[in-house]
Amino acid sequence: FFLRRGKMMSDNTKIGAFLTGFGVVFTILGIILLFDRAFLALGNMMFLAGVTTVMGPGKTKRFLFQQRHLRGTICFLTGIVIVLFGWTFIGMIIELFGFVNLFGNFFPIVLAFLRRLPVFGPILNSPGLAKIIDRIVGNQLPV
């Protein structure tokens, strides 16, 4: 894994990216398997552990408990607790609302990155989707 200017990713960043990715995969599996509580709970825990490992505990705490992110943090963590108690559908809806409030600013950057990848690029640059994604991403390119 290489970053800009030839820097290599640290081991913690690699492990965190792995945990975050598998957390997303387990969450998607939990949704596909009709809101399976075990997969959703495992996905949530892996996602949180991965984000904490990538950013570090201090930066994660500062990010989650900023005044502007507090509503999203409360909804996200409440959704996780509700999923753990077995109310998976309601918990996922609350968790999704919190996730969008926390990480919504990163969606244009992620979409711009995905447009440059070989597999996703042609799909996202197709005539139908390109107009929608251009509206989401805007004229700004992430640098």
Description:
- This protein is mainly α and 143 residues long.
- The protein contains 8 helices and no strands.
- It has helices at 11-32, 37-55, 57-64, 70-84, 88-103, 107-114, 120-124, 127-137.
- Helix 2 crosses helix 3 (57-64).
How much beta, percentage-wise?
A: under 5%
Order of helices and strands: HHHHHHHH
Q: How would the global form be characterised?
A: globular
Distance between the amino and carboxyl termini: 19 Å
Tags for this model:
single chain; 143 residues; mainly alpha; 8 helices; 0% strand; globular
Draw up the topology in text.
Blueprint: H1 11-32, H2 37-55, H3 57-64, H4 70-84, H5 88-103, H6 107-114, H7 120-124, H8 127-137
Concise synopsis of the structure shown:
This protein is mostly helical and 143 residues long. It has eight helices and no strands.
